[in-house]
Each structure stands twice: as structure tokens, then as C-alpha cells.
């Protein structure tokens, strides 16, 4: 009889040990992947929450230039209405070299000028070119490193690569949280405070939202 009991309980212990090992593996791997990103988003969550108290000192730089005579035909006025389209390659190269900016993306072509918006994390900018004279003006504004990191937190003007990073990071955090929850379940029998603490983690933000947010 004791042998039968030991034989029937062995598969249960083996199955639990297998899942415990798997959960620990997924938990530490997801935590390693998301660690730096989690620190970044935690810090910027604090700075965003206190954005009004953290003063930024924007720095604006203005530049001017004159489009070479050979490139003027590329922007010559025409009868077309306002439209959005990329700069011609030669014009884009001149803008990049003259104003030290990335001139990709669509520009706004109106009857009088070509306007290229250059938003970026932590700053803003633009280049405007007069279609009749070729006179070019640019303006670049930087709001500092805190603003830069805050914009990364929001994914503001950060591009496709950063968007993919946020998606992968969010998935890694989800795996980290869910495996942590299952590990809590496996160890809860020996740690009576487990579920009360998890409950507090839910009740505290819910109570704050219900009572103080209107």
C-alpha cells in the first residue's frame, strides 16, 4: 500500500517540478529582457507625473541658407494645389547637409513655400524653402534630456523601430508578470501573506481611482 501511494504521488511531484522549472526560466528571462526598459519607464513615469514641477529650458537654434541655382527648378512654383510629398533626392541631400537634419518624410508643398516638419523626441524643428527665391530657413528646438526620455516613454515622434521595441518590451513585461503570478500560486500554500498582498495591489489603485478621480 505505501508503495502504491508513493508511485501515484511521484508523477504529481514530477509535473509540478517541471512547471516550476519552466516558470522560473520564463520569469528570469523575461525579467532580464525587460529590466533596463522597466527602469527607464519607471523613471520617466515619475518625471511625467511631475512634469509641471520639472522645468525645461528649451534651446532654439535658427539657421538660414540659399538654395543653389541648379536646384531651383525642383521647387519652381506651379499651378498645383497644396499637397504633401517627399523632397526630391537632390533637394533632400542639400537640406540634410546644410541644416544637419534628417530630411526624410513628406513635406508640405504650397504655392509659396516647401515646409518640412522635423518633430523628434525631446524637441521639434522645421525647414521652410521659398519656392520663388530659394531662400531657406530652419529652426530647431531642444527641450533637454528629461523631455527626450519622456517622449520615448510616450513613443512620441520616435519612429517605427522604437514602436517595435515598446511592443516587444510590453510583451516581455506581460510574461514577467504572469509567470510571477503563477509562481505566487505555486508558493502561496507556504506563504499566507501572498494573496492579501496581491489583493492590496489591486484594491489600492482601484480605491484611489474611485474615491479621488472624478
What topology does this entry show?
Layout: H1 2-49, E1 59-66, E2 83-86, H2 89-99, E3 106-109, E4 113-117, E5 123-130, E6 135-142, H3 145-154, H4 159-187, H5 194-212
Antiparallel strand pairs: 1-6, 2-3, 3-4, 4-5, 5-6
Structure explained in plain terms:
The model has no long low-confidence stretch (mean pLDDT about 90). Strand 4 and strand 5 form a beta hairpin. The relative contact order is 0.13. By secondary structure, the protein is an alpha+beta fold. Helix content is about 55%, strand content about 15%. The protein has 5 helices and 6 strands; from the N terminus they run H-E-E-H-E-E-E-E-H-H-H. The protein starts with a helix and ends with a helix. Strands 1-6-5-4-3-2 form a 6-stranded antiparallel β-sheet, covered by helices on one side.
| Poorly predicted residue ranges | none
Number of helices: 5
| Fraction in beta strands | 15-25%
Largest sheet data? 6 strands, antiparallel
List the keywords:
single chain, alpha+beta, elongated
Question: Short description, anyone?
Answer:
The chain is α+β, with helices and mostly antiparallel strands and 214 residues long. Helices cover 55% and strands 17% of the residues.
Amino acid at each position: 500500500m505505501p508503495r502504491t501511494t508513493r508511485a501515484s504521488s511521484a508523477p504529481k511531484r514530477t509535473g509540478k517540478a517541471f512547471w516550476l522549472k519552466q516558470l522560473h526560466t520564463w520569469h528570469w528571462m523575461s525579467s532580464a529582457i525587460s529590466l533596463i526598459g522597466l527602469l527607464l519607464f519607471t523613471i520617466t513615469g515619475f518625471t511625467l507625473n511631475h512634469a509641471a514641477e520639472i522645468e525645461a529650458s528649451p534651446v532654439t537654434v535658427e539657421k538660414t541658407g540659399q538654395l543653389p541655382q541648379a536646384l531651383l527648378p525642383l521647387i519652381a512654383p506651379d499651378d498645383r494645389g497644396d499637397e504633401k510629398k517627399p523632397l526630391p533626392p537632390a533637394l533632400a541631400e542639400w537640406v540634410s547637409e546644410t541644416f544637419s537634419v534628417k530630411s526624410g518624410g513628406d513635406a508640405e508643398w504650397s504655392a509659396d513655400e516647401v515646409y518640412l516638419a522635423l518633430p523628434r523626441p525631446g524637441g521639434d524643428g522645421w525647414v521652410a524653402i521659398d519656392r520663388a527665391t530659394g531662400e531657406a530657413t530652419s529652426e530647431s528646438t531642444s527641450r533637454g534630456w528629461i523631455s527626450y526620455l519622456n517622449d520615448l516613454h510616450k513613443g512620441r515622434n520616435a519612429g517605427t523601430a522604437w514602436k517595435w521595441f515598446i511592443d516587444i518590451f510590453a510583451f516581455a513585461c506581460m510574461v514577467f508578470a504572469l509567470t510571477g503570478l503563477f509562481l505566487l500560486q505555486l508558493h502561496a500554500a507556504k506563504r499566507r501573506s501572498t494573496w492579501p498582498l496581491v489583493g492590496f495591489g489591486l484594491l489600492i489603485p482601484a480605491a484611489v481611482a474611485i474615491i479621488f478621480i472624478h
